[in-house]
Amino acid sequence: ASKKKKVVTRGQWGAAAPQCRETLKYPAQRVVIHHTALFLIGGDCTVYEGRGWGVVGTHTKGNNHNSLAIAFMGNFNNESPSPAAKSSVKQLLQCGVSQGHFHPVFILLGHRDLRDTECPGERLYAALKHLKFP
């Protein structure tokens, strides 16, 4: 059994009320990784709630209704995400599957796989293959 990752909610970190609360109709088939979304992974491995589970994001035009976004805080063109941050996102992905927010066989993508951008940075993009779990 996997350990549930604690998420700091929007209310706990003082976020403003969301302007849009359109919800996804089905579990997300894709997870799009960004660098500075719906959840944010801090350098200290804390997970912060952005829009939250099941809410349609505005992260990747044309892909927002079948995906959820997770952002790592920082610039990962030259720096690698910490092992703790990578562990946190794996736990969050497992939580998303177990709670039915992600399709059990979701596709893990970097923002650059869907748009012309450097995001999520060279080092984070290279780490994506190690973030997926069976």
Descriptive overview:
This protein is an alpha/beta fold and 134 residues long. The protein has a single domain (22-130), classed as Lysozyme-like, CATH 3.40.80.10. Helix content is 19%, strand content 23%. The protein has helices at residues 10-13, 83-98, 122-127, and strands at residues 7-8, 28-35, 39-41, 47-49, 67-72, 102-110. Strands 1-4-3-5-2-6 form a six-stranded mixed sheet. The longest helix is centred in the last third of the chain and has 16 residues, at 83-98. The radius of gyration is 14 Å and the shape is globular. The model has no long low-confidence stretch (mean pLDDT 81).
Give the secondary structure arrangement, pairings included:
Blueprint lengths: L6 E2 L1 H4 L14 E8 L3 E3 L5 E3 L17 E6 L10 H16 L3 E9 L11 H6 L7
Parallel strand pairs: 1-4, 2-5, 2-6, 3-5
Antiparallel strand pairs: 3-4
Can you tag this structure with a few keywords?
134 residues; alpha/beta; Lysozyme-like; six-stranded mixed β-sheet; zinc ion binding; Amidase/PGRP_sf; N-acetylmuramoyl-L-alanine amidase activity
What does this entry show, briefly?
The chain contains three helices and six strands; from the N terminus they run E-H-E-E-E-E-H-E-H. It has 134 residues and is α/β, with parallel strands linked by helices.
Overall average pLDDT: 81
Describe the sheet with the most strands.
6 strands, mixed
How much of the sequence lies in strands comes to: 15-25%
Give the strand order of the largest sheet, numbering strands 1, 2, ... along the chain. 1-4-3-5-2-6
- How large is the radius of gyration? 14 Å
Unreliable residue stretches: none
Proportion of helical residues: 10-25%
SSE pattern: EHEEEEHEH
Number of helices: 3
Shape: globular
Q: Give me the secondary-structure category.
A: alpha/beta
CATH level 1 class label: Alpha Beta
Family: Belongs to the N-acetylmuramoyl-L-alanine amidase 2 family.
Organism: Oncorhynchus tshawytscha (Chinook salmon)
Protein name: Peptidoglycan recognition protein 5
InterPro entries: Amidase/PGRP_sf, Amidase_domain, PGRP, PGRP_domain_met/bac
